[in-house]
Design a protein that fits this description.
It contains 8 helices and 20 strands. By secondary structure, the protein is of the alpha+beta class. The chain binds 3-hydroxyproline (HY3).
Amino acid sequence: MDVFEALLEQNPATTTIKVVDMHTSGEPTRIVVKGYPDLAGDTLLEKRRCAREKHDDIRQRQATLVYIRDILMREPRGHEEMYGAILIAETELTRSGEADIGVLFCHNEGYSTMCGHATIALGRFLVDTRDLDIFPRRNALVYDAEAGTTALRLHAPCGVIHVQVPTDDGHSDASRPVSFLGVPSFTTARNLVVVIPPAVQWPRFRAQQLSEVTVDIAYGGAFYAIVAAAALGFPHGVRDADGTTLAEFDTATAALKKLLSPRKALFAHPTEPDLEFLYGVIVVEKARPGELGLCFFADQQIDRSPTGSGVMARVALAVDQGRLQIGEGRNYESVVSLGSEGNGFRGTAVEKLPQGVIVKVEGRAFYTGASSFIAEEHDTMPNGFIVGLPA
Ligand SMILES: O=C(O)[C@H]1NCC[C@@H]1O
């Protein structure tokens, strides 16, 4: 019996959850491997709805699902910027043979519809795991000896993501990037002018006597507003943003998101109403060196990675703008990945379909640890908390 099991025997826990932690360009993915309860629903989106709806109960009634998500995402076991992946062994597409496994992504506010950085991390983990309780179809994955990669079809809420995982001797090879082909990505608005009412203007914007911001809206498994830093009143871009500037970017992007979110027509999805919402705002450098971006998503989390789904959206936008041709790729960086060789993502426009552009995203992920989390029976703060946010 290890020291942790011995402790548990003395102090019975209400909940025990096992996770594997990874990072992709610095952005964490906490992969829940044991202890997450079954979700009601036949389809992955129904299961996502189940997780979300219970969430609304939680603040009053402590529904189990959110209680568990809070344990993993919030302090003291997680932190405000934590990101989670909950594996769903059976979905309608695993049953039909179109996918190998399903996943729900979670963050500080709820459950997202697409996540590129977590897909890259999951690619490695799902090739490496041998636990068939976690991944029942693991042994059906197909290895391509010539390419040295294993193919994985991940059912995310936005659709099936085709992942290629570099593999060496049956294990993922951390020295080469994981790549994936996303769902069709498309633009819904270009050069949209948003008037910023004086009451919500941020100091730098007001100081320059600006009154409106031009944005593009694009979908890459989730909807993003893409805006140049200069348009928000930051002519020096995002690369040298210090704490004060980041706080002001936070205010600016939150204001923009609030103004845009009610405009439902901008977030129209051809088939799935559950995908119709503005997930994040990506502030990009005007001169676009290395396509640097700063992404605020969910409840203003800052993505440490260059945002895989955001890269899908930005590549689709660049194709529509004529800045990128099919077959061409670009490097994408975040303020964290910038400066370290090979730490960013690469996005390539692979194919143009009637539904949108198929984008290939490449990036690298690494294991950072594995943990068992518990909440003791007598824990006085079992739900966790985030300093500065309501409990
Ligand atoms: O890489 C991505 O697509 C994700 N990273 C955090 C926010 C997005 O979901």
